[in-house]
Design goal:
heterodimer; A: alpha/beta; 6 helices; B: 171 residues
Chain lengths: 141, 171
Amino acid sequence: MNVVIAADKSGQKLKQLIRIFLEAKENDYKIVDLSDSDIYTSTMNVVNAITNKTADRGIIVDAYAVAPFMIANKNHGIICASIYEDYTAQMTRTHNNTQIICLGAKITADNLSCKLAYNFLKSEYAGGRHQIRVDMLNRML
Amino acid sequence: MKIAIGCDHIVTDIKIKAAEFLKKQGHTVIDVGTHDFLRTHYPIFGRKVGKLVAENEVDLGICICGTGVGINTAAQKVKGVRGALVCDVQTAIAAKEDFNANVVGTGGRVVGVGTIEYILDAFLKAEYKPTPERNALIQKINNMIPANDCIENDNIFDEYLKKWQNGFYHD
């Protein structure tokens, strides 16, 4: 699986920990870091990698997981979720076909954040009745 | 304050409790639905909240679904919306102070009613703290979506609802 990660200054440390954690968990994660000092550019780098299909999933880390949610979801075809706990890490993948998650280094502890990122990558989209909602989101923008 | 609130069928009871909380504080609440537990689709209600916010019909919007992701993403697809999906008070405050968020949401299956009340209270009381950097980022986000029919076309979901009724979408 091709995974792109990015962080601004406040997310750099946690982003590195997540990368190390994921690489230790699975051999087949090919992780590329697209970080920029600016959260807008970091987020758009991840969005573009998903849009042009060079990556399967994206993970963005900043202070609160608010800015990447705002920026990424303003792009056609992108569903980005702010993740703070286990239930959403899995369910957003299963129900929303989320390609990108963002994590807040000031809100969610390092150890939990690493596991949330892993749980997100391990989960698969269920499709079926959920697809009408994804189609509707893609019609909006 | 005038506040729009929306939900999907998973958390209608939680949404009603949140709306009652806001009314008790003296706010005017526009509940865009859904109003019962019949299966429906979160983009319908996220768009309605986003539209009221974008057209300045309300001061702020609130979106709740199971995890909060679906309905808040829908609101975020409306030009002019700056939505935040939060699970705690500190993030809700940061969303307003740092990014001047005009929609806040959470997961009704994730966060309890007490925390939701605290989140709403903190979000409504917090004020944007402008800096040149924050103003520039907000301007960038506001400019992201090119002109489209998402706000004015109330029938954009019709073709999908027709396909749904015809059994196109099934598990």
